[in-house]
Amino acid sequence: MLGLGRLAAQAAQGFFHNGPVASRFDEHYTCFPVTFASKEDLEKGNKILLPPSALDHLARLNITWPMLFELHNAEKGRHTCGGVQEFSAEEGTCYMPYWMMQNLLLKEGDIVRVTNTTLPKGRYVKLQPVSKEFLDISNPKAVLEASLRLYATLTVGDNIVIHYNQKKYEIEIVECRPSNSISIIETDVEVDFAPPKDYVEPSPPPTPSPVPSLDPFAGSNGGGEAPPAKKEDVLFGGTGVRLDGKPVKPKKNSPAPTGVSPNRPIAIPDDDDETDEEPWLKAIPGGVRTYNEHFEELKREGKIPGMVGKTSTGDPKAILPQGNFDLFSGSGHHLSHF
């Protein structure tokens, strides 16, 4: 009865003496993250949970929808705005997304002041990604539009969190119009982006160094040294190795005989060479026969079949065979006899 009498006295005082009547929602709550209330999905927005008594108070004040609130941390001088999702929290408790607690510099169990507010509909907002990783998203505009549907308000200085592809991207609110805090419920907002905070402009390409002059006399005129002459490539300029391990003796080249290509080296026999070990050095210039020191003598005696022409003596008959030797006097056989 005492409590009812006191309430009646306060009401009479306010009615007859025109005392102040509460016309604004202004309460203090102990704040916790929404994960403590098993509402992890609310981390993707800026809506809070209030107790049922807050709904009764707001109903008596004739607060219309959407209900928007301003949250204060008086000790740190920080504030932000947000909406309400449900009135299902325990009495004296307020649940809010953890990123909002970080913006307000609040810890679990700290006191937060909650007041109702009215915000103008936003027309323009400028966002700045905290990390350049946000630029890796293939379609950031579509991702941002889908994420901002979960937000009721935007406040300059807040770092909102965008969830996409199992990653979190922080975005700072740089500018809002027409005021520093705006409502984005059922409104079209022009969005502009600032470069990420950790973005670095690419350095300009290096200036190409001057090309040195190809003039051979540039060294004497300009004071520099002339470039060294380019070494000419030599065809088959390598060295050979014998399979038996013996050193390879250098070849002695001589002018090519008539009818032989001048580019083809001709080997001249050496009396000191061993014919058995290097028979290729005994080739007759311009021919294919093996060298023999009695070649001229055998040719005069007609002991080399098929040789036609003059000998070193100039007598064409000297090359004819002597005695009973007949050229091409062999006999033939049919394959059927075998």
UniProtKB/TrEMBL annotation:
Keywords: Ubl conjugation pathway
Ubiquitin fusion degradation protein UFD1 N-terminal subdomain domain: residues covered: 25-120, 121-196
GO CC annotation terms, alphabetical: VCP-NPL4-UFD1 AAA ATPase complex
Pfam (any one): UFD1_N1
Gene Ontology molecular-function annotations: polyubiquitin modification-dependent protein binding
The keyword Chaperone is annotated on this UniProt entry: no
UniProt-listed GO biological process terms: ERAD pathway; ubiquitin-dependent protein catabolic process
This protein's name: Ubiquitin fusion degradation protein
Source species of the chain: Vitrella brassicaformis (strain CCMP3155)
